[in-house]
Amino acid sequence: MAEQTNIFVLGLEDCTAAKLRSLPGAEHQNFLPLLEFAEVKKRRHYAVGELLAKASDQLARFPGRPDAIIGYWDLPVSTMVPILCAEHGLRAPSLESVLKCEHKYWSRLEQQAVIAAAVPGFCLVDPFDDQALAKIELDFPFWLKPLKSFASYLGFKVSDAEAFERALATIREGIGTVAEPFEEVLQRANLPPEIAEIDACQCMVEEIIGGWQCTVCGYVHDGEAQVYGIVDSVRETGSSSFSHYKYPSSLPQEIQTHLANISKRVMERIGYDHAPFNIEYFCDLETGTVRLLEMNARVSESHADLFEKVDGVSDLQILVDLALGRRPDFPHREGRFRCAGKFFVRRHEDAVVRRVPCEEEQQRLAQAIPGTLVKVHVREGMRLSELPNQDSYSFEVADLFVGADNEDELVGKSHRAAEMLAFEFAA
Q: What are the C-alpha distances in Å from 384 to residues 342, 375, 400, 401, 423?
């Protein structure tokens, strides 16, 4: 009988725990929660030092030995994993290579060194500098976003000086939510002087890029990068908020091949290893030009169900294999559906939640529309503005994970499912 391996998962939630325990070979793997989900997700403030100390204490009190520590969330999880793994001699990317993905300015410098043609114009800006606008080297319009952010939190498309000042006011008020824990992480890393002198409260101004948006999903094993899938990211009409993610991508094959090649080059450049990654791009279908939006040092929790539906296994399998030192052998198009999507149920104005669909209603929906799962993010009585880490233009009320045999069926199923979700709101 194979020996049980102990795999600690930072911020493990119930739905992902179920997916992990359904992976091939999971009967030989003991998935253990490391810290509570609520401690590392859905909060407005993270004390990284305290979380690391608590996680280390939990590991020290464990009667066995940890064989791996993994995570699938952004800050603080993505940066805690390499710190904790280094302490216990476990496989993980170095903290510095993770920061070369997540520190937006450092990441741009690394990208420029190997794939300069894919890098949009950018510059640093101090949001607390009253003369900030005069020092910006790009013309309107541009994106203004914190040096470290996720889910488009505090990211603004700025069209003129007035909009810039409004965005700065909002950023000044909220930037500490992410900058403070990120600064704690930066203090633990071996940074080059030009990066060490930049404090975490800085912002990035970046050239507006557009076109077909997608995410390249890959991994690095023993220094060799591989790409296993590309997911399309579809935005709402006339909005910066996402409508849905779709897998597999509908991009022309030559563009997909180019995206895979440059993704492998940049990940190998930064020394990232033993873990999955995903990189977001914009593609101009007429010219073939691609621009890199951002790099993420983790598997995407949003994509796990999509890969399971289409390829037959969640890409959480890749995360587990790499953490245990195994080269992934990921299936291709062996799933129940030919395509899959994650659809965002959004509300664009603040409101109080008066009703959410109960478990029984969600189960009826899944039975009525096969291949559909619901994840609700709100509770009765809460105000939508209490939701942490939202984009700057909408509130994510729920997610629908849908599988289908073609794209028309996929969209149709999502519309039917959304109509069945009996949310009620009041101003």
A: 21, 16, 18, 22, 13
